[in-house]
Amino acid sequence: MGSDRYFRVHNARRANARRAFSLIELMAVLTIIGIISSAVFLRFGASTYQSTNAAGFTRMLMLDLNQARARTISTGDNHYLQLTRDGGIVTSYTLYRDTGSGAVVVDRIVDVPEGTLVTTATDQWAFDFDGSLGSGTGVGTIQVTGHFYTWTISVYRATGTISSSKVSL
């Protein structure tokens, strides 16, 4: 019994010393990352930021068109996206619900980001109870142009199906 204690004490290994980052080392690393990040942003600049904004705006516009279509099907009330123009340029859009006695705003006003151009022949994108686009035949399109790309959102009138394509400038 005594020999067990002897072997445990004398054959035990020392615990390895643990080393962690000091606060100064952590601050140095964060400073270097900040400098590199600012250099990258300055290198690629506002054009990359604007292109990213245009991509996000395109996704949001498609999601809101899908939301208008889904709400129309589920409630039976027509929903539509109304584009707002200022001097012929699309500046924002809003999702509305047509209750029969007037239009009610369903969601917030979404502004077009700076550096993004939206072109379309139609300012109102209304969906019927069956999910189809309100009027006309064929395909309705909305083009969103950023700094590097142009996205074309297509809405098929008969079914209300929404798709997009991206083209490099």
UniProtKB/TrEMBL annotation:
Domain of life, per the record? Bacteria
| Originating organism | Aeoliella mucimassa
* UniProt entry tagged with the keyword Transmembrane helix: yes
- Is RNA-binding a UniProt keyword of this protein? no
Per its UniProt record, what InterPro entries does this chain match? Answer: N_methyl_site, Pilin-like
Q: Which NCBIfam families match?
A: IV_pilin_GFxxxE
Q: This protein is called what? A: General secretion pathway GspH domain-containing protein
Supply the alphabetized keyword list.
Answer: Membrane, Transmembrane, Transmembrane helix
Membrane-spanning residues: 20-42
